[in-house]
Amino acid sequence: MSDGTQDVIRLVERYSAPNYAPLPVVVATAEGAWVTDVEGRRYVDMLSSYSALNFGHRHPELVKAAKDQLDRLTLTSRAFHNDQVGPFLRDLAELCGKDLVLPMNSGAEGVETAIKTARKWGYDVKGVAPDRATIITCAGNFHGRTTTIVSFSTDPKARQGFGPLTPGFVTVPFGDADALAAAFDHDVVAFLVEPIQGEAGVIVPPDGYLRAARELCTTNGALLVADEIQSGLGRAGSTFACEHEGVEPDVYILGKALGGGITPLSAVVADTDVLGVLTPGTHGSTFGGNPLACAIGREVVRLLQTGELQERSKKLGEHMLTTIREANLPAVKEVRGRGLWAGVELVPDAVPARAHCERLLERGVLAKDTHETTIRLAPPLVISEEDLDWALDRILAVLEEAAR
Ligand SMILES: *Cc1c(COP(=O)(O)O)cnc(C)c1O
Hints:
CATH class of the largest domain: Alpha Beta
Bound molecules: pyridoxal-5'-phosphate
Number of domains: 2
Strand order of the largest sheet: 4-10-9-8-7-5-6
Number of strands: 15
CATH superfamily of the largest domain: Type I PLP-dependent aspartate aminotransferase-like (Major domain)
Shape: globular
Number of helices: 14
């Protein structure tokens, strides 16, 4: 490793709060599914910034929308209207088949917004007694990093040392419809769930789970809130991962890819009987609905309207999952996934997932470990079949070596 890379890493290690442990690569430029580091080495991006780059790096139409908007107007706050927010909200509402949209910035803000909305809905519409609203969440969840959100994380690292924690949440095992059924009482206002758990290692629930959750929410008068921040917008081979079971949640939380890999943009999308409980002054964000993000978000929605990328995700995803499964590698315990999204679970005594990712880096593939034993793969949905195969060849080679 030459000095360019080391210099940058030294600078980051000197000045960055130590809340990350990145792989030793310093990216300088990128296009589509490929990134180039400061030394001119090229890598296939098999992480896509956790699905924020579903459309690849610097998608030409997204960059054009951003540049055009940069030359016109970037921020008004919502004290005033801007000419980009309306069309974006309309197009996103139509994509989701819902009435209303509340735009925010980060995914965590989207989740916070959904929590506040569900609670207010619980008091105003369902008639829950003041401060009694409960939200059911799943073990192994990842919904972001705010104090309230880490309060219902089951990862000790995410919550320990950050108390006092926010009350009002109960945990059930993910994928267990009976446990979910038993968790409802009159105070439950919502079930907050990732249709596929991303950070947990691409955990796909048993077939029928989301449908059961839909029914349980309906019969118990609670909102089904789907956190599709990572699973949505094409990643799982359909616009939303919930579609796989034909399920329509009451509330979608979107983020990551919604900003086209250019700007943070999240949104809560629901019908009027839900989002309509918010009135002026009850919620907001200075940057939420800013014209730059909205211009990009509108183009993101446009890219999803034909269904072509979702189809591509599905087709290439099947190819990716089958290729790894059929290699029958001794180091691999299980390959989970849907669409262009895989969690490769290693056998317990294999080389740690992090070491695999370091070896992949040396061969020109960017991938990320999660929970010591899982390698997560999520290439941009625009990746070519040849580039995907190029990456898969290297992934299989590294997995094969690890077994020896
Ligand atoms: C990434 C993620 C979040 C948090 O998004 P940030 O933009 O990092 O705040 C929330 N939920 C899910 C499912 C995610 O994958």
